[in-house]
Every structure is written in structure tokens, then in C-alpha cells.
Amino acid sequence: MSILVVGSVALDSVQTTQGSRTRVLGGACTYFATAASLYDRVNMVAVVGTDFPQEHLDFLRSRNIDLRGLQIVEGETFSWSGRYGEDVNVRETLGTRLNVFADFSPVVPQDYRDSECVFLANIDPDLQLAVLEQVRSPRLTALDSMNYWIDSKRESLVRVLSRVDVVLLNEAETKLLAQEPNLIAAARLVLGFGPRVLVVKRGEYGVMVVTQGESMEESLFAIPAYPVEDVVDPTGAGDTFAGGFIGHLARCDRLSLEALRRAAVHGTVMASFTVQGFSIDRLRTLSLADVERRYDTFRHLTYFESLTPSERGRFHKLFG
What we know:
Layout: E1 2-6, E2 10-16, E3 19-26, H1 28-36, E4 41-49, H2 54-62, E5 65-73, E6 79-84, E7 91-97, E8 117-120, H3 125-134, E9 140-144, H4 147-152, H5 154-161, E10 166-170, H6 171-178, H7 183-191, E11 197-201, E12 207-211, E13 219-223, H8 237-250, H9 257-274, H10 288-302, H11 309-319
Helix pairs in contact: 1-8, 3-5, 6-7, 8-9, 9-10
């Protein structure tokens, strides 16, 4: 089995209340692939410039990540700089330089075209569609997007949504795409575009997984974020969530509700590790055993008992 990811690889400069880092490894593709590589082999399609440090290439190759789809072209690598204050949910972008990423045209190598799972990271929906035209018959397809594409390329985004199984958006993006202020209603409207599963990323408030469709039972599942006291840098948490989420699903025989719920926990746990360091620092030495231990801890944190018969009786007397 293998997972194909198409998206950005970047050099990030980040400032938080815990310190700062300059030109560290970043990009949606990087975070996703680093997380997903704990579960399965990852085939990466992206572009970097000739200034991209060799040490970053060496790290990616040291993981279960195939870089034959990574284009290295003349010019500078996509770079982003940002700052977080006391509220880590608020990010201030200080600068974005697309550089070689501005002309990125994804070419999926022949050996990647039979990948069983495909994740289209946050890129132009027309490019996402072009990638889907190049792959053969993936078992699972998923995409991420953002408000910029919803505003500027809505029709293209709606077309690609009809071609995938899973879409990941944050709460504001879900409401914007659906043009509906109520989150639950908005989620149903987004699923009406064609995907079977919508994952709503809600930052420190966790995630919500909503399903519907002819081959999928209608359901809603919500979990909180894993409680982390030492948040260092939230950059890439959503992409790492996607890596854990899709990584777990790649190991499942079918897209069942049970598998989706476990995948959401895997994604949540992966994101909780990411925010404990700058860039991918915390992920560099992370093992699947570490993930599974935190998974079990999270399960105990969110478990609660059913009402006992006597409690149920008292409840009905008081409120029935």
C-alpha cells in the first residue's frame, strides 16, 4: 500500500511566545508526509528550489517517504513567515513568497499512479483536479482547501469535491463554502457537493466528523483536542492531523464509521505532538508506539459511563 500526497514544501520563519525559528522545514506536504509515514509509505509530489537545504532532503528520505515526485527547479523555495501571540488560534502572516511554487504543475510519476490513498493538500483546485486525472483507481481520495480558493475558485473547488471521498476544512471555511452560519447545517450542505465525509477542524476545540451519502451511514462524531500544556508552535497542526487521519485509514480495509472515528483520534494525537515543538522537531523522533500510548490516554480522558438505572430514574423524576 502507499499514500500519495501533493502539495507544498516550504521554508518557514516563525515567531511565538516560546521563541523563534528561521527557514525551518515546513509546508503542508511536509507535515502530512512526516505524520503519515509512520503508518505507510508516502509518495510525495511537490516542488522546491535549488536553495532547499540538503539536510531537509536527507531527513525526508530517512522516513518512509519517496521523493521521486519532488521537483527541484532553479530558483528559491516557497517561503512563509508568521507570528503567534498569547492566543495561538490567531496567526499573523508577516510574509509569503511563492517563488518556484508559483509555477508548480504537479506531475505524478508512473510508479505513484497506483497509490491506494490520495491526499490533495491545500493547493489550487484546478491542480487538484489535474492530479485526480493522473491517478488510476485509488481506494480513498481526500483533499484540504482554504478560504482563498473558496472565494476565488469556487466552481473549480465544487467540481473537485464531487470527485473525492473526504474533505477537510476548518469551521470558518465550512460555513463560507456552504454560505450557512450554522455549522451542522453547513456541514450537510458541503457533503451535498459529493464527498462522503467532512472533517471540520476546530483548533483547540477539536474536530467534528460528519458523514452522509448512498454508501455511508449518516452520522456525526465530535471529539475535543488532546489537552496540551506546553504549546510551542501550532504551525502545521492541521496538516499533521490529516497525516494521522489518512495514515490510519490507509491501514483499514474499508471506510467504516468505526475506522473514521479511530482515524480522527489518530489525527488529533498526531497534531498534539506537533504543537509541542517548532516545525517538525517533535515528529522527528516520534514512533507509532508513542502515538498509540497517547491514543490510549486520550481514550481514557474522553470516556464516560452510561447512566445507571437509578440515576436515570431520578433524572426522569426531576425533568420528565
